[in-house]
Design brief:
This protein has a single domain, classed as 3-Layer(aba) Sandwich (Rossmann fold). About 30% of the residues lie in helices and about 30% in strands. The protein contains five helices and ten strands, in the order αββαβαββββαβαββ.
Length: about 190
């Protein structure tokens, strides 16, 4: 997606340790029009890959919510975001899987209420980044535990050097990313 690649080149900042900061348009301040087009692009690419009957789009709280919502809207599906912490209103039973945050370096449980994932569902997982694959792996495990069908995995930005895609191979679902970033001598390279 050329527009996304150009935005990353202009506004993306490598802050060290392989972390790229896209907070001016993706995961802190959000550009609504770009986010809408990202959702539409995911729909187009997944439909080209044979994925069309999506009933729910799943992401992790919080930075993936905007792109997952735009993708859910493009598919006419519901959005579910896995919670990272329990609140007092969470009184049901939950599917739970552990993930390690790449940017924070902490472990957290991802939780989805069992009422919202069923064996009849066709699930598309969408997140902002694919790095080590830990968060996406946990989301895939939640979907597998529910008995729903994992139709595909979409990430706005992939960091191929961290080999997260390899972690997802066991799920036999198409993995689609819209932009890739790599680092060499702290220099950021962006491509489709």
């Amino acid at each position: 997606m050329r527009e996304l690649v150009d935005r990353i080149r202009v506004e993306g900042r490598h802050v060290g340790g392989g972390i790229v900061k896209l907070d001016s348009f993706l995961n802190h301040q959000v550009d609504p029009e770009l986010t809408r087009r990202i959702g539409e692009e995911f729909q187009r690419r997944f439909e080209e890959a044979g994925v069309s009957a999506v009933t729910r789009v799943v992401t992790a709280e919080a930075s993936g919510i905007a792109v997952a919502l735009s993708t859910a809207m493009a598919f006419g599906a519901k959005l579910i975001f896995a919670r990272k912490s329990q609140s007092r209103v969470m009184t049901g039973t939950y599917f739970v899987a552990e993930a390690i945050s790449r940017t924070r370096g902490i472990r957290s449980d991802l939780m989805i209420d069992r009422r919202f994932l069923t064996e009849a569902d066709q699930i598309l997982i969408v997140d902002d980044f694919l790095a080590t694959g830990s968060t996406l792996l946990a989301l895939c495990q939640l979907v597998a535990e529910s008995g729903a069908t994992l139709a595909g995995i979409g990430c706005v930005v992939e960091k191929p050097q961290e080999e997260g895609r390899a972690v997802l191979r066991e799920f036999s679902a198409p993995v689609i990313t819209l932009a890739k970033v790599e680092f060499e001598n702290e220099e950021l390279t962006v491509y489709e």
